[in-house]
């Protein structure tokens, strides 16, 4: 199959439990390169766990994830599959950028140091090259003047934009956003959404878990609705315009819209 016909990300029958609680149940999902996908659903439906399984921050109990056709988290050795070493797994995971709800910046590092840390430590890239690219990325997210500031000196919206620049510094094939505005004050939401919109406009493959449904309707190509660890329904933007077939989807959208 030609490379452009292979889904950039492919999840096959992912299941995940925490103790007796089943969080994901045989979830399968293909994401073509360049697509902006929004995952919707009530709290506890498995959205965040699905994202974490896609980039192996959480290892699924069953199923597999493929990135560009390559199996995530494992390598073949003498005819059997074994888990990747921590170093190899970190390098593989870096191909799927992750932006969290709570920023997760290093508080003792400057903004610039936060952005260059992973390219230097995980990818072993030259410092001069990484520094030059970091300044370009900070300018892109509107924070070139904050390079020497510490996270505690920034607003929540600024910290989240630093987190996006940090993810981009790894030159990922896709970025996963896990409710990136849920921890922000309302007036800070727009500045973060503008950065995400610019990434989508540039063709970056994105998967967004968000309750900003109005924004998602404007920028996303496809929507997935999850309930109780399963994908209940998926479709294009008309899914949000009253075309949802499943009663639970319609009920959820009626509340959030």
Question: What does this entry look like structurally?
Answer:
The protein has 257 residues and is of the alpha/beta class. The protein is 34% helix and 26% strand. The protein has a 6-stranded mixed sheet, with helices on both faces. Strands 2-1-4-5 form a 4-stranded antiparallel sheet, with helices on one face. A two-stranded antiparallel sheet has the order 6-7. Strand 9, helix 6 and strand 10 form a beta-alpha-beta unit. Helix 3 packs across helix 4, helix 3 packs parallel to helix 5 and helix 4 crosses helix 5. The chain is globular. The mean pLDDT is 91.
List the helices and strands and how they pair.
Layout: E1 9-18, E2 21-31, E3 36-40, H1 47-54, E4 62-67, E5 70-71, E6 74-77, E7 80-83, H2 86-93, E8 96-99, H3 111-121, H4 127-140, H5 156-168, E9 174-178, H6 186-201, E10 205-209, H7 213-219, E11 222-227, E12 230-235, H8 247-256
Parallel strand pairs: 3-10, 3-11, 8-9, 9-10
Antiparallel strand pairs: 1-2, 1-4, 4-5, 6-7, 11-12
- Number of E-type strands: 12
State the end-to-end distance: 40 Å
- State mean pLDDT (0 to 100 scale): 91
Number of helices: 8
- In spatial order, strands of the major sheet run 8-9-10-3-11-12
SSE arrangement, N to C: EEEHEEEEHEHHHEHEHEEH
Give the CA-based shape: globular
Beta-strand level of the residues, as a percent range? 25-35%
Give the helix/strand class: alpha/beta
**Helix coverage percent of residues?**
25-40%
Which sheet architecture does the biggest sheet show?
A: 6 strands, mixed
| Rg estimate, integer Å | 18 Å
């Amino acid at each position: 199959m030609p490379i452009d016909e292979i889904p950039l990300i492919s999840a096959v029958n992912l299941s995940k439990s925490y103790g007796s609680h089943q969080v994901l149940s045989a979830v399968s999902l293909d994401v073509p390169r360049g697509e902006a996908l929004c995952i919707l659903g009530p709290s506890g439906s498995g959205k965040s766990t699905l994202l974490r399984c896609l980039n192996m921050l959480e290892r699924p109990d069953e199923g597999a994830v493929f990135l560009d056709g390559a199996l995530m988290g494992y390598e073949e050795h003498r005819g059997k599959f074994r888990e990747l070493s921590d170093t190899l797994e970190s390098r593989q995971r870096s191909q799927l950028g992750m932006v969290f709800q709570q920023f997760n910046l290093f508080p003792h590092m400057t903004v610039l140091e936060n952005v260059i840390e992973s390219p230097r430590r995980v990818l072993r890239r030259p410092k001069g090259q990484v520094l030059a690219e970091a300044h370009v990325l900070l300018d892109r997210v509107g924070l070139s003047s904050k390079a020497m500031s510490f996270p505690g000196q920034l607003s929540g919206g600024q910290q989240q934009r630093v987190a996006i620049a940090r993810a981009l510094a790894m030159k990922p094939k896709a970025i996963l956003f896990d409710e990136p505005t849920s921890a922000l004050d309302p007036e800070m939401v727009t500045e973060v959404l503008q950065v995400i919109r610019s990434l989508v406009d540039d063709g970056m493959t994105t998967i967004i878990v968000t309750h900003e449904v109005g924004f998602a309707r404007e920028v996303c190509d496809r929507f997935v609705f999850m309930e109780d660890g399963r994908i209940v329904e998926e479709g294009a933007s008309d899914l949000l315009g009253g075309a949802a077939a499943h009663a639970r989807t319609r009920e959820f959208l009626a509340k959030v819209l």
